[in-house]
């Protein structure tokens, strides 16, 4: 393996990120084609139903792709979906060698392409920058391996771990820079999940507010409303994007409130969170962002359903009477604590951003 191999795969990863907000439920994939140490083709998967990264790059390279080296962030597909198999396109283009960063966790593909390519005389190496490729496809990996989405929660808090005053006021604890940073997590998510309590208290929109973001890519809004307390004129229902309402009840008095999904299993009078995320997996959602209060966050944490916590800490203190991050039962032993690992720490404006990951995640 040469230094340039890492360079070209890194470029492929950068291309893959171009589809980070738009290609769901498919994985984020980039491809670079090189010949005589020059890039002759490149592409990325932008949207479901459109060409995959390999086909875009091969079209870019044209006939010059013969005897070239191809760098792909994911194992090329071997089955027919919305588009033909990419492995066939690589064979027909008569490329010389293929690098791919990681195996495709989709059981229809996993491990098949290497044998097909090699049987056609194409050299294959896999595993180059594998961890980096997995990082941008955490949700796709989780859904393929476990059948459920990658669950991320966003929390804004003071340095003493408080999310709102005792009276419920919380605008604004963190800075404008942190609030802008949250938009990228909304944009990359298949759905934003919240509780009816948050809807009734704050009337949020929970949409992506980026200048170049198209409404057709707005994430689905998922509301947990066990007793159908939603009224019908809330902001979250008025804006573009699909809405799912999970409830223990079937019908609402207001006919405009649709997409009510009745769950039969309840826990302490509320919809089963596990049943909800299983259903979201069936709906092919890769990443879910929770934006809610301490009760729902605490419920997810207690059931070990949170994969990542994005915690924005403002340089202020609200005191021990203010509301906390997670509503949890009293712990009596240190062995009962909820453990995460620190994945990253950064400064966003005046705030500190800490990314915490579940230990032994995907």
Structure description:
With 362 residues, this protein is of the alpha/beta class. The protein is built from eleven helices and 18 strands. It has helices spanning 3-16, 53-61, 86-92, 112-119, 130-136, 138-146, 176-188, 196-202, 235-238, 273-282, 294-302, and strands spanning 30-35, 38-44, 69-72, 97-100, 123-126, 150-158, 162-164, 191-195, 220-224, 243-247, 260-262, 266-267, 270-271, 287-290, 308-314, 323-324, 340-348, 351-358. The strands form four sheets. The protein has a nine-stranded mixed β-sheet with strand order 11-10-9-8-14-6-15-18-17. It has a five-stranded mixed β-sheet with strand order 2-1-3-4-5, sandwiched between helices. Strand 4 (97-100), helix 4 (112-119) and strand 5 (123-126) form a beta-alpha-beta unit. It is elongated, with a radius of gyration of 23 Å. The model has no long low-confidence stretch (mean pLDDT 91).
Key structural traits:
alpha/beta, 11 helices, single chain, 18 strands, elongated
* Shape, principal axes of CA atoms: elongated
Element string (H = helix, E = strand): HEEHEHEHEHHEEHEHEHEEEEHEHEEEE
Round the Cα radius of gyration to an integer and report it: 23 Å
Low-confidence region ranges: none
Oligomer: single chain
Structural class: alpha/beta
Can you list the strand order of the major beta sheet? Answer: 11-10-9-8-14-6-15-18-17
Q: Estimate the mean pLDDT confidence.
A: 91
- Count of separate DSSP helical elements: 11
Count the E strands.
18
Portion in strands: 15-25%
Helix content, binned percent? 25-40%
The largest sheet is: 9 strands, mixed
Tell me the distance between the termini.
28 Å
């Amino acid at each position: 393996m040469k230094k340039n191999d890492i360079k070209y795969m890194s470029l492929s990863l950068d291309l893959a990120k171009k589809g980070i907000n738009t290609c769901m439920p498919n994985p984020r994939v980039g491809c670079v084609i090189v010949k005589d140490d020059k890039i002759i083709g490149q592409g990325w998967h932008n949207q479901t139903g459109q060409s995959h990264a390999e086909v875009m790059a091969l079209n870019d390279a044209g006939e010059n792709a013969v005897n070239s080296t191809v760098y792909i962030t994911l194992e090329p597909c071997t089955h027919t979906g919305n588009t033909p198999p990419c492995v066939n396109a690589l064979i027909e283009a008569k490329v010389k060698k293929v690098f791919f960063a990681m195996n495709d966790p989709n059981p229809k593909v996993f491990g098949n392409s290497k044998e097909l390519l090699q049987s056609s005389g194409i050299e294959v190496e896999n595993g180059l920058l594998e961890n980096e490729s997995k990082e941008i496809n955490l949700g796709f990996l989780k859904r393929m391996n476990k059948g459920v989405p990658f669950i991320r929660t966003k929390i804004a808090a003071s340095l003493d771990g408080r999310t709102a005053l005792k009276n419920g006021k919380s605008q604004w604890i963190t800075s404008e820079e942190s609030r802008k940073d949250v938009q990228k997590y909304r944009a990359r998510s298949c759905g934003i999940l919240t509780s009816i309590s948050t809807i009734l208290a704050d009337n949020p929109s929970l949409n992506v507010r980026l200048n170049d973001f198209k409404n057709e890519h707005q994430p689905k809004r998922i509301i947990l409303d066990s007793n159908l307390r939603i009224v019908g004129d809330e902001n979250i229902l008025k804006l573009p994007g699909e809405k799912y309402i999970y409830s223990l009840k079937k019908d609402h008095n207001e006919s405009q409130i649709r997409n009510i999904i009745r769950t039969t299993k309840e826990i302490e009078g509320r919809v089963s969170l596990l049943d909800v995320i299983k259903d979201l997996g069936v709906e092919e959602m890769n990443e879910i962002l929770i934006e809610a209060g301490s009760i729902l966050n605490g419920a997810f944490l207690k059931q070990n359903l949170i994969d990542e916590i994005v915690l924005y800490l403002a340089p202020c203190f609200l005191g021990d009477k203010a509301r906390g991050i997670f509503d949890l039962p009293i712990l009596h032993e240190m062995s009962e604590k909820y453990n995460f690992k620190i994945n990253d720490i950064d400064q966003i404006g005046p705030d500190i951003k800490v990314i915490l990951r579940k230990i032994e995640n995907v």
